[in-house]
Amino acid sequence: MSAMEQRLGGRLMVLHKVTLRYVELEDRICMAAETREGGSPVVFWLTQRMAGRLVGTLGRYLEESESEESPVSGLVRQAVRQEDARLQFEPTRPVALHQGGFLAVLPSRIDIRCGGDRIGLELPMGGEDRACLTMTRMEMRQWMGILHRQYEQAGWGMGVWPGWMKGLGSGKN
Description:
Oligomer: single chain
Number of strands: 7
Order of helices and strands: EEEHHEEEEH
Distance between the termini: 28 Å
Strand content: 25-35%
Radius of gyration: 16 Å
């Protein structure tokens, strides 16, 4: 267990794989997750407000953590890194949800933990229990690219997205 996955009190469920998709009927993004331990999947419903907060925070983190002296502007540098992440993304089968066979959670907050090249999203599961999704910066960029496409599909306002995410090529979820 990594330091980012350690937690005192309550149970910590480590998320292994996630699938994002916009659900029009709910007007929310469904983040279906498999756990490293196996068992039934977990669904986290992300509202537009919650997703927008994530986008802003993660975008700023990527900009600040990857800033460097360069003749290339930060906007161009970030756009190139984002496109590189998109091109390296290899789609896998989506997380399978079975009728009535999963836990659904509407998180009231998502804590973000950053350390080195890893970013962790901690989501409440009820009580003191939490779930943690840990990604590298490259994986975070890929995840943000998928979230960006879900925003577009939902028709949600794109003003929360950093300038370097605009006009990117499309990929598959």
